[in-house]
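[job 4417] fold queue: 2 targets
>>> target A
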Amino acid sequence: MLQIGHLTITHKKDLRTIVSGLSFVLNPGDKAVLIGEEGNGKSTVLKWICDPRLVEDYAEAEGTRTAQGVVLGYLPQELPEDDRELSVYDYFSRRPAFQEADAAELIRMASALHFDSGLFYSAQLMGSLSGGERVKVQMAALLLAKPDYLLLDEPSNDIDIETLEWLEKMIRNFAGGILFISHDETLIERTANRVILIEQLRRKTVPRVTVANVSFRTFMEERQRSFAKQEQEAVSERREEKKAMERFRRIEQSVEADLRSNSRQDPSKGRLLKKKMKAVKSLEHRYEREHGEMTAFPESESAITIRFERQKEMPAGKTVVNLELPELRAPDGRLLARNVVLKIRGPEKIGIIGRNGAGKTTLIRKIAAELCSRSDITACCMPQNYEEELPFGKTPVDYLASSGHRDEITQVRTFLGSMKYTADEMFHPIAELSGGQKAKLLLLRMSLTEADVLILDEPTRNFSPLSAPEVRGILRQFPGAIISVSHDRKYLAEVCDKVYRLTEEGLAEETSFQKK
């Protein structure tokens, strides 16, 4: 049993409490998903549960953690720096479970995770693996150790659809308990039987946690019904209160008028009117008390608000991409694919899928290099590695308000506020922001340009299940062309007009994703 009691976490830098009073018990068979908006402390909670020392540098935590006799397996969101310089073989060799595993077990593990078993012995550096390959290697190392509980921070990031399907089965069939963070709504809907929601209300000044022993879809449906019912009751009570107050004011005005007109003429009537006024004041106090007991309007974190308003609609006949590539090679010279042909006209929205290591990012970088050099279109990019596009040493305000003029800074702060940045976060170095906050920053930057082509590598990978529907809607309404790499099945179905699979033989159109 893994038990967490009254966990409260406060950031040292801005003294903001991000989690307050979180308590839950994770039993074998529980598959709990930890959700919340970007920057709400989900990864910090997972780190603290794994080892409180992991958060000591930047957060103060109070609470109880009971995990005696339990073997925990922890998958961090980012590969630790020390591991990046290790070869894959050295990475595994440091783990006793790998040394004890026989060849058959390693082959089964590699097959399940869709990679060649020779990767266990590879001299390739961990840091040079693709994002999906790194996740697979780390998951293999975790599972070889046979943990009782798994703490998984974004296990679905960057992995291909085939491995996502394996991950779903693994989570469902794992005998122990799992607490995981994911932005893949399909994965969450198919695996989680418990939901832990971390929220920051009232401009991130009031933390709230909700623990529900239901599936994600049931949780969201019940939450919406509860909010709708609460809002209906609150509106109804205030409507009745308004009517009652109008009646009360008429009575009060009538008694006051009688008191003024009597003006000592009839002492007996005056005493009676004073008694009436006392009753009126008593009634007023009762209404004030009842007002304080009225049903409150439901509180929840509002969705991000962003629109592409500066962009012109892409003409339907405009040739955006006319790519004919005899060979696609990796930076190290490896042949990835042959005869890659891609033609995009007008405001088409294209998704590219494929196995990890197939060369999707290499392909989209080639496309980006060509499109960004053209003068007849304006292209903006969201790379998989945000550091390629974002100046990590700058603050969000410095990045967006390049002129430094006061009016521009004021406007930028308003835009950042609409993306749910706090005043403090607007002036934090970009390097200190969460992956989701960095993604929001890139998305906001794109909206402030006149771009008519967006080149996106895993655009929804760091948006929470609460924000992702809004992001998909924003991209669906974008008036230009979108060329994207994604493994997000909802994004592919809801945003993309066409989906292509990259294989060794080139690009082939997929018909399994139908736009909704």
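>>> target B
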Amino acid sequence: MAFDGGFLHTVTNELQQAIDSHVDKIYQPARDVLVLTLRKKGFVKRLVLSAASGTARVHFTEQKYDNPDTPPMFCMLARKIFSSARLTNIEQKGLERVIEFTFDTTNEMGDRISPKIVCELIGNSSNIILVADDGKIYDAVHRSDIEKSDRLILSGATYKYPDSQNKINILTADLDFVANKILNQKTQELSQAFLQTLEGVSPLVCRELANLAGENVYDNIVSVLQILKQNINYGEFVMLLNSDGTPTDFCYMPIKQYGGLYSEKQFKTPSQLLDFFYFERENAARIHKASSDITKLLSNLIARANRRMAVRQKELNDNRDREDLRIKGELIKANLYAIKPGSVVARVQNYYDENLSMIEIPLDPALSPSQNATKYFKDYKKSCAAVTSLGALIENDVREIEYLESVSESLSRCKTLSDIAEIREELSLSGYVKQTAKRQPRKKTQSQFDEYTSQEGYKILVGKNNLQNDYITCTLASKGDMWFHTKNIHGSHVVVFCGGQELSDETIKQAASLAAKNSKAATSSNVPVDYTPIKYVKKPNGAKAGMVIYTTNKTIFVTPEDQL
């Protein structure tokens, strides 16, 4: 990611508006994340400080973080030192990824002190350190190992800045001098020369500078450095997006090196960009972590059901020849006079065969010929009963696998922790997850669903899991409303609340597109979607959540796309 020293410089400039504000609240939503609410007349902002590996950054945030019920000890210490403190200075050390916040407050004795919060945003070594005005460390979110670390980051130790790489700060250096340094680097790659020379510039930016320089390096390098300097001071805040809209990278200058491979999204401030980018990444990580146990459970359940069904199917196939058992019993019974007691095989004529061929029938020598016939008849009846029960069991396995796959598909579309909680509740109600304690049933409100409005003004609800699907279809919808679902594909129930009114082609296409987009076929094209009035949608007795049958339907083929 391009959160380099140059980007931190743009953030530092933006944060200057918080000078003279007071610390109103301090939270620690995660082990290495601190959130400060800063307040002054006409100004209220939340400042997030993150030292998490891969997501280390500092910026204003509009996001609301889930805080633990009991504040961690580091958070309690920060509150003790910085609560109500006035922010007096925000300073970046050159173009290094180190920023410090200086405050003015009083200690327990009433003496005025100037403690600092130092954020080192250096990859896996990122840290948030509370430092007293005499340079002693109060504490840090990541304490150092005395035996393995060159810098001592422990309570009571003297704080020292990370070692400098002795690179050139382009904001203060002469550009001709910098250009000569770059051209004298012993490397064939111009981007590497930029990286080895310039302080606080990421590989992404270095590749872009090399791309801008083109072939006439000697003529263009100074102008390229001027562009870099201009963007660091007054840059454009650009995010790169994949073809599916997923945030990939960001920078304080336009990125043209990829051609049309990525699209760009611009933001007015660096904080807005960082807030969007990292919230999306962290939310995806939180969702993945929170759903990992359910994902594993569903995978195991589906695999187990498939194995069980395969065993039953094999047993059913083995009983396909059950009629042979009856025939052998009849042939033994018809030839009792010719079979000697104690025989291990009976060679008789098969009068069930049009050619009247001879057949050898295995016998149990411990049984009489009559008892052998009875045994074959019993095996025949047992096989018939097995076929009947196995057919029903296999049907149950098929329904269970379909249900579990529908839950898995719903889980893959979860965007919030509450969505995952609903999936967990559904599995609990279905008996797949044990309830650890009795809980009050969760109230179902329309705000839980994804809601849209058609061009004709009709409300459209989209269920996000099987419980919501049931509630929308079987409780909220009336007989005249229109129901949509992908044909033979796991997905959401979509209902257009039209009260029996005839829908336009545009509304039908919109609702069908929503059904396709919220299904397992979300990335496909020409997805078949069935639709029919609610009065033709029925839920069989005993059916699992989200399982319905429907008739009198029509089918439309659509390509999933964003709606409204």
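[job 4417] complete. Note on B: Residues 524 and 559 are 7 Å apart (CA to CA).
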